[in-house]
Structures are given as C-alpha cells and as structure tokens.
Amino acid sequence: MELDRRLLLAHCAAHALSVIFGLLAVIPLALNGSAFKGRCALFSQGFWRTENLTFSGGGTGEVSHLVVRQWGPPAACQFPTFVGVFTVLYGAVQGWRSLFYLHRRHDEGECDPQPGTALLVQHHH
Asked: CA 115, 118, 121, 125: dihedral to nearest 10 degrees?
C-alpha cells in the first residue's frame, strides 16, 4: 500500500510540474500576442533601429525600436499556445484526480485510478 501511495504522490508532482511548465510557455506567448496585436514574433525577421532625436528644449536623446520586415507564420504561435493550454488543463485535471485518490485512499478495486499500479504492487509481493 505504501508503494501505491508513493506512486500517486509522484503522479501528482509530475502533473503539477506539467501545469507550471505549461504556464511558462503559454503566458509569454499570450503577452507577445497582445503586444504585437496578434502577429507572431516567433521566426519573424527584423532589426533594431537606433535614432538620435533632438527635443524642442534643446536636449538630445537616443530612441531604439524594433523594425519588423516580415512577421512569423501564425501557426508558429498557435500550435505552441494550443499545446501549452492543453498541457495546463490536462495536468490540472489529472493532478486533481490523483490528489483526490491520494486523500480518499480508494481500495484497489474497480475505482483504482491507475490499474497498472495494482498489478505492479501485486507483482512485487
């Protein structure tokens, strides 16, 4: 029974990590999508331009900005966003499910969350 509990705990931890890593992919992609008005910055071509400006009060300063020649294909941002959102949702559901079974301590009957763990535990005894 202790092995089953440890496997469920490892399962919860793995899904928690998948949620964290999914968010680490989705959040920057969403921020870039909103900053670039829906255009994809991945695989785009461009350069930084620095310009010297003279202000009306007599002061000068430098301004740099990004000049994009060609934006990346939309699929380059849509696919990683889809995979990241799916990973977050799937990891959250499976992690919650594993946590539920970990705290409820269901017997190894028909309600076992991972049928392979019951076979593994029986094989080692």
From this structure: -140
Domain spans of the chain?
2-40+75-124
Joined together, the tokens standing for residue 66 give 């990004």
| Burial of 51 from C-beta contacts in 10 A (0-12 / 13-18 / 19+) | exposed
Low-confidence ranges of the chain (pLDDT < 50): 107-110, 119-120, 123-124
Residue 86: CB atoms within 10 A of its CB come to: 12
- Tokens at 23, concatenated: 């968010």
Report pLDDT for 111: 52
| SS3 call for 47 | strand
**What does the pLDDT look like over 68-98, one tens digit per residue?**
999 999 999 999 999 999 999 999 999 999 8
The three-state secondary structure class of 42 is strand
How far is Cα 112 from Cα 25, in angstroms, rounded to an integer? 32
Can you give the pLDDT at residue 106? 53
The CA distances from residue 47 to 4, 10, 68, 121, in Å, are: 55, 46, 7, 59
